[in-house]
Amino acid sequence: MIIEQRIIPHLWFNDQALEAVRFYTRVFEDSAIIHVTKLQDTPSGDCDLIVFALSGFQFMAINGGPYFKPNPSISFFVNFDPSSDPHAKEHLDRLWDKLSEGGTILMQLGEYPFSSHYGWVQDAYGVSWQLILTKDEGEPRPKIIPSLMFTNKVNGKAEEACLFYQTVFKQSRMGEIARYPGGMDPNLEGSAMFLDFMLEGQWFAAMDSAYEHPFSFNEGISLMIECESQAEVDYYWQNLSSDAESEQCGWLKDRYGLSWQVTARKTDEMLFEGTQQQRNRMSKALLQMKKIDIAELEKAFVNQK
Q: Nearest CA to 40 among 278, 208, 201?
């Protein structure tokens, strides 16, 4: 079953999007490629644009060229719940073996204070996954949860950011929070060791990390907001955009450096349902925009001057 989402993680690849998505849909259960389309003659050449679902959770991927790469500042928790799956540990180990082949281990698979079985891996395509055997307590969480790591200049701001996002999005609330105790230098006592929160009915996680990391939020993984109207596009753009120089083609960066795409469900549907000529006209019009203009994109689609 595919979950209905307003916020969809978007993965940027150089030229391996379709290869990566085919790999993911093989190794994750209940997974499928939903749509594949091609945009021609973009600044990155011809681009595959793919919508897919892993364990019912939707993603989008694009071949965007060598400009950005995913990094561990955004990773994805994959929850294995023994209360609903008696073979959860074996399923976790099987997925771990497949994701770690050719990848980089960020935290070894093993026992930790927060889980009896957990590991963090960056796969061969650069996407990071946190596989965890969940405890049979508290409110259930979905299979896959995007996780934000606040590092470098925004370290210590995870809780602040989560509270800010809840002022912007509907159906939002805090979940659990665990804070760093004293003596865990360089992490500041009281900052977020882990927290989770809900936006638009979807769960997200976040943490602070004061260690030196060679990465921070970038366009390699962005969060795409599916809007129903121009008014919604305008609302999210006004409330989230905090860096005018990063505004392009519906992309923006917020005050914490996190990349968002504010798009419209109707125009996205046209990209997958139209002819190649219609898609090319839409993408050419989109390249001239910062915030998207739904009416202008629809005109480009039908070739109306």
A: 278
DSSP sequence for 58-79:
EEEEEE--TT----TTEEEEEE
Q: Nearest CA to 58 among 26, 10, 96?
A: 10
Residue 250's Cα: distance from chain center in Å? 16
The Cα–Cα gap between 111 and 169 comes to 36
Q: At how many degrees (to 10) do helices 294-302 and 265-273 cross?
A: 20
223 in helix, strand or coil?
A: strand
How many other CB atoms are found less than 10 A from the CB of residue 37? 15
Name the residue among 197, 252, 260 with its Cα closest to residue 223: 260
Read off the tokens for 189. Answer: 């006592």
Cβ–Cβ under 8 Å, residues 262 and 250: yes
Per-residue model confidence as pLDDT tens digits over 271-287: 888 898 998 899 899 98
In the β-sheet with 7-13, what is the strand arrangement from edge to edge? 32-42, 45-54, 57-63, 7-13, 221-227, 259-264, 251-253
Rg (CA), the chain: 19
Joined together, the tokens standing for residue 105 give 């281990």
- Dihedral angle sign, alpha carbons of residues 194, 208, 250, 32: negative
List, in sequence order, every beta strand (DSSP E) within the chain: 7-13, 32-42, 45-54, 57-63, 74-80, 104-112, 115-122, 128-133, 144-150, 173-179, 192-199, 202-208, 221-227, 251-253, 259-264
What is the tens place of the pLDDT at every residue in 59-75?
Answer: 999 999 999 999 999 99
259-264 and 221-227 beta bridge pairing: parallel
pLDDT at residue 123, rounded to an integer:
98
The torsion angles phi and psi of 147, rounded to 5 degrees, stand at -130, 130
| Angle at which helices 17-27 and 88-100 cross, to 10° | 160
Can you give the pTM of this predicted structure? 0.96
Amino acid sitting at position 83: S
